[in-house]
Amino acid sequence: MRQLVYSVATSLDGFIAGPKGEFDWIIQDPTIDFGEIFAGFDTLVMGRRSYELMLREGRSPREFGMNVFVASTTLDPAQHHDVNIVAADLARIVAGLKDASGKDIWLFGGGTTFRSLLDAGLVDRVDVSIIPVLLGGGIPLVPEGRRWPLRFKDSRTFPSGIVSLAYLTAREPQL
Fold first, then answer.
1. pLDDT tens sequence across 2-24
2. Regarding the domain delimited by 4-23+38-156, which CATH topology (the fold level of the hierarchy) does it fall under?
3. DSSP tag of 39
4. Can you tell me the distance from the alpha carbon of 25 to that of 134, in angstroms, rounded to the nearest whole number?
5. Handedness of CA 147, 53, 59, 95 (dihedral sign)
6. Where do the DSSP E strands lie in the chain?
7. Separation of first and last alpha carbons in the chain
8. Would you kindly state where each structural domain of the chain is located, as residue ranges?
9. I need a surface site. Which of 13, 34, 78, 102 has the fewest CB within 10 A?
10. Residue 157 has what DSSP assignment?
């Protein structure tokens, strides 16, 4: 079965974006091989705000060369031909994707989307890259919700000071 992997950058104080959604604080480390990372995925799931932010930057999630699913109840699918807009039942769609053959599924951006799929028991791994910066406010790594135990899988430190941590999720939340 394919794994759903939440792979995200966060500030040391736990924000995935600044107060206005900005991510200019994410430093680039030339020793990180993004090609190798992206090669492990063939499907991308993201929330509407992350998708719209990417579009405002003049980019498209299709540039990753993956099948893209965007969780949104407000976007018109007719206006977004290059992605699959999921207006309802995201958990059922993602469960179906996990059952299909293929590479792992990258859950990119969207703390709210992450929380909903985590609480549905669909997230298998959480990969967090901690960027050495304190933002002081912004969009939190994880919105409020149930407690989920994690099991350490791996860690790596890069010359820029970025620390990447990988955890496996438990199958059941703690109440």
1. 999 999 999 999 999 999 888 89
2. Dihydrofolate Reductase, subunit A (3.40.430)
3. T
4. 9
5. positive
6. 4-11, 15-17, 41-47, 67-71, 84-86, 104-108, 125-131, 139-140, 150-157, 163-169
7. 27
8. 4-23+38-156
9. 78
10. E
